[in-house]
lactoylglutathione lyase (Lupinus angustifolius), 335 residues
Amino acid sequence: MNQVRPNAGSRGVRFGEVAAPRSHSFGLKAARLFRQNATRMRVMATGNVSQASTAASSENVLEWVKQDKRRLLHVVYRVGDLDRTIKFYTECLGMKLLRKRDIPEEKYTNAFLGYGPEDSHFVIELTYNYGVDKYDIGSGFGHFGIAVDDIAKTVELIRAKGGKITREPGPVKGGNTVIAFIEDPDGYKFELLERGPSPEPLCQVMLRVGDLNRSIAFYEKAFGMELLRTRDNPEYKYTIAMLGYGPEDKSAVLELTYNYGVTEYDKGNAYAQIAIGTDDVYKTAEVIKLAGVGGKVTREPGPIPGISTKITACLDPDGWKTVFVDNVDFLKELE
Ligand SMILES: N[C@@H](CCC(=O)N[C@@H](CS)C(=O)NCC(=O)O)C(=O)O
Ligand SMILES: [Co+2]
């Protein structure tokens, strides 16, 4: 496993250190919070114990995140015609339609598709907003990865069904994995990756980021993800980092791509977010705030009015959104 942090040095984020000082004020503020909390804990250790547990020291909560029961639940994005996309994903990509829900008061419909039940698989949540038939995908979103065991066969099937092949099967430039790219009816790219049979065929979400070390620090510290590997491809001037809550061959991962010299992307309005399960949305939000690695909580933790599922939402340092969903509440929603 390659644990080298590409392009370290100038930013040099090392773990065990307090902050990654992109923004100095944030870094210093976080450092101060750490110390304040540590002091408060020592004071409380001799006094009010119940207060100590509510104030939960930053050290504890930053450790907790690594033990939390986390999993990528689904990726959410908008499409212009739900039936058209359902047809393409079921007929060409071999997904199953798992559920559909219409929210007429809010004028939208969701459809969930994937390769297995939602309680154990990473799936796709499509959003159709009444009357909106086109979205801008932007330049920041990359692709979804799908593991297939016979890429030639899959590509031929997609071609036969009238699907768009944007890159024919062959070894990835600068590597060995046989890949192909296809486009769905809205223009979302899917990378097909030839692998043996996989328990989690929907295996990657690729997003482009402006500073890979900043992103790695964020997803490790604020989200408790593991850096699975990085790969620098100088010939093609990009570096990728794979991050997740489990190994790449068994669970879906986030693939972050840094293109040399590109620090900003247009996010469009099509791709929305990834949802991650957690045992505690309150602690989740606290960790994001205390970690001192950028990003921000955009929705304070608490129940969604009406359905009572507890969530919190945040943006990463590039502005990519994640929603954390309470694990127990999520399973109740599936019943
Ligand atoms: N400039 C690329 C960098 C990422 C990249 O090239 N990824 C590889 C897959 S890991 C790829 O798409 N290769 C294209 C090919 O092999 O044809 C981007 O932003 O998409
Ligand atoms: Co990929």
